[in-house]
C-alpha cells in the first residue's frame, strides 16, 4: 500500500465528502446556472423597451381620438385609453409610464424619479410637437452600435461567477469546519501528528478541484445559451477564479475559526457576505453608491474579484489591467489564512 | 457508612509501586480546576510498560480530564507528566507519532467509508500497519466500503480503535470505549484489546464499568473526586474487602430493618451497611451469615429482596465511597 501525503489525503477526503452531499452539489452547480438562466430570460436583448402611454378620456371626444391616433403612429409607443381612476392605478404600478391629458394645454402626468417616465415624456412631446409643425433646428442622425459585452447578461455573468465563488468557497469551508468541531473530529485530529496548516490548506485545495467544474459549468452555459463572450484570455480568467477561491476559502476559515454551532457560523457568514452582495456589484454597478464610499467598496474582496472578472471577460484586460484587484485579493487571502491559523479553535 | 481510604491496598499498594525502568507513563500531583470546580485534585499515576491500566470511577470523577491531560490535549494547572519518558512541552511531535488515542465523543466523518477513514488516519503517521491489516485487526474487513454513518455503534467504536492503532502506537489511550454498546459489541471490543495487549503494548483505559476493568486490566486505580482512592490489581482490590460475597436485601413496607450494629455482629459478616432501606452485607462465610440474617429478620415473608453475589470491583467502590458507581 502506498502511503500518500496527509495534505493529499485530507484534500481527497474533503472532496469525496462534498461529492456525497447532494444538496451541496445542487447549490454549487445547478443554482448559479438556474439563476443566470432566469436573469438571461428577464434581461434578454429585445431592443429598446416600448414607452407605455395612457391617454385620459376627458373633454371632447375628437381631441382624445386624435391624440390617440397621433401617438399610436409613433414607433415604440404603446397607447391605452384610460379613465381617471384607472389612470391613477396604472401610473402607480407602472402599467403606464406617462399619462397624457388632452389640451389645451396638453398636460403630462409622470413621476420624474422614474427614468422610463422621463424618456416617455420626451418621446411623446417630440411626436406631438413634430405633428404640430416643429422642425429640427440642428441636423442630427443616429448611428446604432452594439458594444461587445454591453448587454446586461454579459455584465451580470461575471458578477454571478464572483458571487458563486464567494458563496461556495465560504459555505463549504465553514460548514465542514464547524461540523467537524461539533463532532469533536477536530479534537481527534489534534490527537494525531497531523499538521494544523495541512488541515486548513486541504479545505482551500479541495475547493480548487470544484472550481474548475463550477467555472466551466456556468461559463459554458452562459456562452452556449446567451452567447456571453470572454474577450480576454481564458488562462487569466481561470487564474483570477483560482485566486478568488483561495481568498474566499481563507475568509471562510477565518469566519468559522471559533464558531461552535452551525447557527453561530451562519450568522457570521451573513454578516460578511450580505454587505458584499449589496456593495460589490453583482446585479447592479457598485458605482451607484456615493463617491465617498467607493474607496471602501473597492477594498472588498468581492468587488475586486467582480471588477477583475469583468475586466477580463468584457474589456479583454490582461493581468496588468487588473493588478490592483489582484493585490486586494492576495492581501485578503494571506491575512485571513494566517489569522485563521492563529485564532482557530481545535476543540 | 464512611469512606475507608486507609484500606490495606490503597496507600500500601500505591507506595509500593516500583519506580524507574519500565514506566510507560508517570504523573504526579496533577491538578486541574474549571473555575471553582476542582476536576483533578492532586492525582498520581504510574503505568508500567506492557500493562493494561484502568482508571475507574463514576461519571464526573475526573477520569476524562486526567486522560486528556496525559494525551496532551488539555493542560494541567499543576503537576508533572511524563509519557514514554518524554514531555509534552518539548517532545509533542515525537509523542504524537507514538501514541494511539480514542476519545470519548468523537464522531468520524459520516460520508467517508471505513477504508477511506483509515487511509486518512494512516497518512498522518510515519510508520504503522497497512489499512488492510488494521481492518483485519478490528474485524471490519466486510465493512471496508461502508460509510461511517451507516455503521452500528460497536462497529463505529472498533473503527475508532483502528484509527488509534494507525501509527502502531507504543501506548494506547482509551476513554470509555464501550459506553453505550450492547453486551455483544462490548465483548468483541474486549477481545480486540486483549489481543493487542498480548503483543506487549501498554493500554491506559478509563471506564465506569467494573466488569470491564475486571476483564481487561492488570491494575486499576479507583478515582473519585479527582483523586486516586485505591490502587491495585482487581483481585487485590476485591480481596481488600476481606470477603468474597455480598448479600443485599430489602424488607417489605412496615417491617423494621435491623440496626447496623446488629448486622455487623452477625457471624461471617465483615461489614454491614444500610442505605435507603437497602441492607448490604460484605460476607466472608455465606453459609454462616445467611442463616443468621434470616434468623434476625425472623419472618421469611418480610423480604422484598434477597440476593447474593461474588464480590466485584463495584462492591469495592461502594465500600470505599458509600455510593453506587452508577448513581454516584
Describe this structure in words.
The complex is a heterodimer of chains A (347) and B (328). With 347 residues, chain A is mainly alpha-helical. Chain A contains 13 helices and four strands. In chain A, a hairpin with a 5-residue loop joins strand 3 and strand 4. In chain A, helix 6 (152-182) packs parallel to helix 9 (234-255). With 328 residues, chain B is of the alpha/beta class. Chain B has twelve helices and 13 strands. The longest helix of chain B has 16 residues, at 183-198. Mean pLDDT of chain B is 85; it is low at 1-21. Chain B starts with 7 loop residues before the first helix and ends in a 7-residue tail after the last helix. Chain B is elongated. In chain B, the strands form three sheets. Chain B has a six-stranded mixed beta sheet, sandwiched between helices. Chain B has a four-stranded antiparallel beta sheet with strand order 11-12-10-13. Chain A binds chain B through residues 1, 3-6, 8-10, 13, 16-17, 20-21, 180, 183-185, 187-188, 190-194, 347, and chain B through 71-73, 93, 96-97, 99, 101, 103, 105-109, 111-112, 116, 119-126, 130-132, 147, 163, 166-167.
What attributes does this structure have?
heterodimer, A: 347 residues, mainly alpha, four-stranded mixed beta sheet, B: six-stranded mixed beta sheet, four-stranded antiparallel beta sheet, 34% helix, elongated
Amino acid at each position: 500500500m502506498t502511503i500518500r501525503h496527509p495534505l493529499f489525503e485530507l484534500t481527497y477526503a474533503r472532496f469525496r465528502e462534498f461529492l456525497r452531499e447532494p444538496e451541496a452539489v445542487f447549490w454549487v452547480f445547478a443554482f448559479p446556472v438556474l439563476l443566470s438562466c432566469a436573469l438571461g430570460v428577464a434581461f434578454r436583448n429585445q431592443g429598446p423597451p416600448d414607452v407605455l402611454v395612457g391617454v385620459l378620456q376627458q373633454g371632447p371626444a375628437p381631441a382624445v381620438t386624435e391624440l390617440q391616433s397621433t401617438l399610436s403612429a409613433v414607433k415604440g409607443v404603446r397607447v391605452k385609453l384610460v379613465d381617471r381612476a384607472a389612470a391613477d392605478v396604472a401610473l402607480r404600478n407602472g402599467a403606464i409610464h406617462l399619462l397624457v391629458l388632452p389640451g389645451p394645454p396638453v398636460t403630462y402626468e409622470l413621476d420624474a424619479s422614474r427614468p422610463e417616465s422621463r424618456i416617455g415624456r420626451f418621446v411623446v412631446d417630440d411626436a406631438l410637437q413634430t405633428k404640430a409643425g416643429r422642425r429640427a433646428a440642428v441636423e442630427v442622425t443616429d448611428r446604432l452600435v452594439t458594444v461587445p459585452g454591453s448587454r446586461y447578461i454579459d455584465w451580470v455573468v461575471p458578477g454571478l461567477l464572483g458571487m458563486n465563488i464567494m458563496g461556495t468557497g465560504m459555505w463549504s469551508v465553514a460548514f465542514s469546519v464547524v461540523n467537524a468541531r461539533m463532532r469533536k473530529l477536530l479534537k481527534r485530529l489534534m490527537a494525531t501528528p497531523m499538521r494544523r496548516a495541512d488541515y486548513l490548506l486541504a479545505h482551500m485545495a479541495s475547493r480548487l478541484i470544484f472550481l474548475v467544474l463550477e467555472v466551466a459549468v456556468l461559463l459554458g452555459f452562459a456562452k452556449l445559451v446567451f452567447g456571453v463572450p470572454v474577450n480576454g484570455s481564458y488562462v487569466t480568467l481561470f487564474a483570477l477564479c483560482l485566486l478568488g477561491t483561495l481568498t474566499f476559502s481563507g475568509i471562510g476559515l477565518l469566519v468559522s475559526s471559533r464558531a461552535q454551532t452551525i447557527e453561530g457560523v451562519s450568522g457570521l457568514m451573513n454578516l460578511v457576505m450580505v454587505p458584499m452582495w449589496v456593495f460589490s456589484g453583482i446585479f447592479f454597478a457598485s458605482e451607484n453608491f456615493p463617491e465617498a464610499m467607493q474607496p471602501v467598496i473597492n477594498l472588498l474582496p468581492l468587488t475586486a474579484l467582480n471588477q477583475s472578472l469583468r475586466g477580463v471577460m468584457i474589456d479583454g484586460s490582461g493581468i496588468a489591467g487588473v493588478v490592483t484587484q489582484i493585490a486586494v485579493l492576495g492581501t485578503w487571502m494571506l491575512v485571513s489564512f494566517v489569522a485563521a491559523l492563529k485564532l482557530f479553535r481545535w476543540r | 457508612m464512611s469512606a475507608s481510604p486507609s484500606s490495606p491496598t490503597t496507600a500500601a499498594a500505591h507506595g509500593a509501586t516500583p519506580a524507574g525502568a519500565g514506566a510507560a507513563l508517570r504523573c504526579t500531583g496533577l491538578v486541574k480546576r474549571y473555575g471553582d470546580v476542582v476536576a483533578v485534585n492532586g492525582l498520581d499515576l504510574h503505568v508500567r510498560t506492557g500493562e493494561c491500566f484502568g482508571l475507574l470511577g463514576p461519571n464526573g470523577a475526573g477520569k476524562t480530564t486526567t486522560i486528556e491531560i496525559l494525551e496532551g490535549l488539555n493542560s494541567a494547572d499543576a503537576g508533572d507528566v511524563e509519557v514514554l519518558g518524554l514531555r509534552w512541552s518539548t517532545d509533542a511531535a515525537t509523542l504524537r507519532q507514538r501514541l494511539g488515542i480514542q476519545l470519548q465523543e468523537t464522531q468520524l466523518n459520516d460520508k467517508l467509508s471505513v477504508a477511506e477513514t483509515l487511509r486518512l488516519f494512516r497518512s498522518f503517521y510515519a510508520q504503522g500497519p497497512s489499512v488492510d491489516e488494521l481492518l483485519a485487526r478490528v474485524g471490519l474487513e466486510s465493512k471496508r466500503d461502508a460509510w461511517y454513518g451507516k455503521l452500528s455503534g460497536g462497529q463505529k467504536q472498533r473503527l475508532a480503535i483502528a484509527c488509534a492503532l494507525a501509527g502502531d502506537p507504543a501506548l494506547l489511550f482509551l476513554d470509555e470505549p464501550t459506553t453505550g454498546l450492547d453486551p455483544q459489541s462490548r465483548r468483541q471490543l474486549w477481545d480486540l484489546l486483549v489481543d493487542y495487549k498480548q503483543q506487549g503494548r501498554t493500554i491506559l483505559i478509563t471506564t465506569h464499568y467494573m466488569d470491564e476493568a475486571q476483564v481487561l486490566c492488570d491494575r486499576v486505580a479507583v478515582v473519585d473526586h479527582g483523586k486516586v482512592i485505591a490502587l491495585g490489581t482487581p483481585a487485590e482490590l476485591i480481596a481488600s474487602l476481606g470477603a468474597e460475597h455480598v448479600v443485599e436485601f430489602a424488607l417489605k413496607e412496615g417491617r423494621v430493618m435491623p440496626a447496623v450494629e446488629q448486622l455487623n455482629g452477625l457471624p461471617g459478616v465483615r461489614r454491614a451497611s444500610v442505605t435507603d432501606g437497602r441492607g448490604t452485607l460484605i460476607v466472608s462465610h455465606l453459609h454462616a451469615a445467611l442463616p443468621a440474617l434470616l434468623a434476625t429478620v425472623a419472618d421469611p415473608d418480610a423480604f422484598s429482596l434477597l440476593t447474593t453475589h461474588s464480590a466485584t470491583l463495584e462492591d469495592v467502590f461502594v465500600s470505599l465511597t458509600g455510593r453506587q458507581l452508577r448513581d454516584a
